[in-house]
Specification:
It is a multi-pass membrane protein. Its main location: membrane. The chain is mainly alpha-helical. It has a single domain, classed as Up-down Bundle (Rhopdopsin 7-helix transmembrane proteins), CATH 1.20.1070. It has ten helices and five strands, in the order E-E-E-H-H-E-H-H-H-E-H-H-H-H-H. It has helices spanning 28-55, 63-89, 99-132, 137-140, 143-169, 186-190, 198-231, 236-264, 273-295, 298-317; strands at residues 3-5, 11-13, 15-18, 96-98, 178-179. The strands form two sheets. Strands 4-3-5 form a three-stranded mixed beta sheet. A hairpin with a 5-residue loop joins strand 1 (3-5) and strand 2. The longest helix is centred in the middle third of the chain and has 34 residues, at 99-132. It starts with a strand and ends with a helix.
Length: 318
Amino acid sequence: MEKVKNNSLETTVTDFILLGLSHPPKLRTFLFLVFFVIYALTQLGNTFILLMVWADSQLHVRPMYILLGVLSFLDMWLSSVIVPLIILSFTPASKSIPFGGCVAQLYFFHFLGSTQCFLYTLMAYDRYLAICRPLHYPVLMNGRLCTMLVAGAWVAGSIHGAIQATLTFRLPYCGPNQVDYFICDIPAVLRLACADTTINELVTFVDIGVVAASCFLLILLSYANIVYAILQIRTADGRCKAFSTCGSHLTVVTIYYVPCIFIYLRAGSKSPLDGAVAVFYTVVTPLLNPLIYTLRNKEVKAALKRITGGRGATKENK
């Protein structure tokens, strides 16, 4: 049942129907397989990163790899909040989601997304300290401080998600219940509200804008200092090594922030392109993160050799 009567004049929505991604019916099976493979590879890739950091004694004590492990954990959950529902949308199964389920999805989407945003900032700060303050790095970024900063990111993300979910669902929903999107996200859900959403749209724009812009500016500031410090290195090998330690993170930040800015700074837009852009940063980015960090990271490759090679690899390294 999609709606129940609240009184004689209006009805209250009890569930929503996610219309999903628009696609030709002939491609339904193909898209089902594509998203299923993406989800499976995302979970496997990020699980691999987590196990690698946990199993290798040289990685799990270093802040850089603690942060990488947390990022992989976030990617696994962010993907799980979104991709299974997309996969189901390509099957004959019901497309409806309970009202409470929609609230939970919006909350966890913004909770995990904003926590990831804060985490990228911490990763940039970690690289700044490692390159610009190498002598003081062990004191300025130790395991205890790293753990506290990560905990702070989780708490801030949780508060951010709660604010967005509360503001969105405090409004009455008494009319259409078809969400023209593949998840319960703020712009799509607000279009169904039976009230003026101007204040919500403004708060969403300011809140998400401030969080994203602040984190992005801090990342840019960190990398401005990093680039300046790298250019002071006299040897070409030293500069290449320093750039390589930052290249992976900078690549991930770019493919995460650009689509986010495109979506949320155009909250009133109904362009079909929005769905494709959203799929990229919510579905594809969690898949790319493990690839970017493993294919371009010599220390992760060395850790894999140590783990798979056992004692033999250890003797060779010595």
